[in-house]
Amino acid sequence: MSDGDNKATRPFKIMAGNSNRPLAEAISAYLNLPLTTASMKRFSDQEVFVEIHENVRGEDVFMIQSTCHPANDNLMELLVAIDALKRGSARRITAVLPYYGYARQDRKSGPRTPISAKLVANLITTAGADRVLTLDLHAGQIQGFFDIPTDNLFAAPVFTQDIQKNYGTDNLMIISPDVGGVVRARDIARRLDVELAIIDKRRERAGVSEVMNIIGDVKGRRCLLVDDIVDSAGTLCNAAVALMDAGAESVSAYVTHGVLSGGAVARVSSSPMKELVTTDSIMATEAVRVAHNIRQITIAPLLGDAIDRISNARSVSSLFR
Q1: 271 — phi, psi (to 5°)?
Q2: Rounded to whole angstroms, how far apart are CA atoms 246 and 200?
Q3: What is the DSSP string of 174-238?
Q4: C or N: which end of the chain has fewer Cβ atoms within 10 Å?
Q5: pLDDT of 152-161, one tens digit each?
Q6: Nearest partner of 127 among 156, 86, 169, judged by Cα
Q7: Contact at 8 Å (CB) between 216 and 197?
Q8: pLDDT tens-digit map of 25-51
Q9: 287-300 as b/e: b if 16+ CB within 10 A
Q10: How far is residue 84 from each of residues 23, 42, 58, 197, measured CA to CA in Å?
Q11: How many angstroms separate the CA atoms of 110 and 90, rounded?
């Protein structure tokens, strides 16, 4: 696919849930394959009902569904769709999760708390998925929660291309908003051949962060924050303020998954951030679409290439060399 040929070389089917229909349609257009026709409805009590209107017996099927808001509804829709495919005798079912919900609950945060990321992995496997394809997991070790093959793609190549097009590399510095994101930020800094800085912060309670220190000299630099998830946007906005206070020329951000819940969009709009760029792993709300400093870029070609390579038993990791 990366050689410019958008024709599938081995037959497979792609199917989509309701969580992010525009992305599924973009992947379908990129692969030049129509989406499998199916009905995904709700009974009056909100029970999920799925009916597939095409023969899937013996087929290699990729079921596209982000488990974003409303997370529980979209997750249940994914599970029921996988079960429908399994009972329809699909040869192999790949759950394509552009955004893997519950990923932030990847360890016990205190006594008597769940590891929900593992629970969701169990549910997807038990429902009948044969493999999983996802993007920028919050913690790489979540791959180990699955007992089936799991491909974790990275948005870095998409971000790098967009940064080179819209920002260039002159006087540019990549910033990790916390210590946990250093590996991700370092990879993009390496690809762009620019310097890296780190923000050391202390989280006092869930959803609230306090910037403590900037490791690196950002004075006069064009700073790009890089992260995997932006939810309340508190971390990013606090980081942007700290960078500007430290003498940065400008601050923008690239984040894979734009959850942007609650007052996040308003917070970003009123922040010193020049721009927040997210992928379309989560469908943009109306508030995101009209925000003056939030922009989405598509991951459809990346997911399309990965789907084609998986179906044709070719390397996926070679996409990121």
Answers
A1: -85, 170
A2: 14
A3: EEESSGGGHHHHHHHHHHHT-EEEEEEEEEEETTEEEEEEEES--TT-EEEEEEEEESS-HHHHH
A4: C
A5: 999 999 999 9
A6: 86
A7: yes
A8: 999 999 999 999 999 999 999 999 999
A9: ebeebebbbbbbbb
A10: 22, 15, 14, 48
A11: 41
Which one of the listed residues 13, 201, 219, 274 is annotated catalytic? 201
**Length, in residues, of the chain:** 321
CB atoms within 10 A of CB 142: 23
What local confidence, expressed as pLDDT, does residue 320 receive?
Answer: 86
Name which residue leads in pLDDT, 135 or 7: 135
In angstroms, the CA 211 to CA 157 distance is 28
Give the pLDDT mean for 313-321.
Answer: 89
End-to-end CA distance of the chain: 16
Dist. CA 302–CA 319, nearest whole Å: 8
User: How many Å apart are CA 227 and CA 233, to the nearest integer?
Assistant: 11
Contact partners, residue 169, CB within 8 Å, separation at least 6: 163, 192, 193, 194
Fill in the amino acid letter for 212. Answer: M
- Give the count of beta carbons closer than 10 Å to the beta carbon of residue 26: 18
pLDDT at position 235: 86
| Structure tokens belonging to residue 106 | 């990847």
Order across the sheet with 92-97: list the strands: 13-16, 60-64, 92-97, 131-135, 150-153
Active site annotation includes 7: no
Going by pLDDT thresholds of 50, 70 and 90, the confidence category of residue 208 is: low
| H or E element that contains 167 | none
Decide: 150 and 166 in contact? Cβ < 8 Å. no
